Amino acid sequence: MNHRTARRVASTAYRVMILAASCVALSISAFAQENAARYTGDPRTIAHDFLDLEKDFGARPEHHATVNRIINRALAEVPVKPDAATADAVRTLQAIDAVLRAEGFSFKDNLLLSVGIARKQIDCDNYCALYVAIAEVMKIPLVPVYAPDHSFVRYYFSDGSFLNWEPTQGKSLPDSFYVKAKGIAQPSIEKGVYLKALSRKEFVAVEYNNIGAHLIMAKKLREAVTYLSAAIAFYPAFSSAWHNRGSARLALAMLPEARSDLETAVGLDPLRATSRTALGDAYSDLREYQKAVQHYAASIKLDPTNHIPYHNMAVAMQRLGRDGDARAWEKKAKEIRAKYGR
Asked: Against a cut of 0.85, is the pTM above it?
């Protein structure tokens, strides 16, 4: 997903921001045997809900039909064992991966499930929606989990322990991998921002956020705010939605509201450099340049390879009357851009 930072770049400001196993003999669940190739859309799944939310953005009946076909294929091909051990769970997940690969899907950043289905290129959120849709019909104890700008799924065992599964790679990865790779702060875990099993309602919030990001990219900012507000209502600890709504409001010159949203985003995820930059922009537009400087400095510390906060720091310094510092920061911005290309 990638996923999912809204950006608005101006000359003086940065606005936003499996291996398929050779399956050993493992009986398909009784549910699968009795219902293989019979699923027609009832019970509804999370994937159908995502597509319904995308009706105004290109989702069509054939996309629903594709989800139905995928589920029917899973019913026939995915082994499920009650009271599964780790090896059993891995076989089940590998089989789901094999179904999606056989359907021609591959990973690529994307925002909308309908687009992913049409192009056969799906991002992490799309993958999770299809995994969970299969799980809902086949009664597999699988739930989505959110990390910064990324979703994966988690298989829960009867004793409460679990196994994480990375759909984009088709393998199991521990929480520690996501903490390191995604730069997750411990307070963000404790607040339920990241690495928690999402409820169905919270996963729907991920879809609202994706649509909001899609609308920001289409420069439909007021419509984006509506979807992002729904995402926040469904998932109050959803830092990406707070970031994106703050960025949209900043672009709409709703400065106090943007500042409030971005402060919440930073509070939920203090290690997201782009939120720090966007919050610096909000303070700069409010003419609170010292506070802007503090957040640009924090952004640079978190990600020294992005030239935007260096440039914005130069602008803030100039407005503070510190022309020498402004020239030095602008020079550094050009060096960083030349070195890293961003």
From this structure: yes
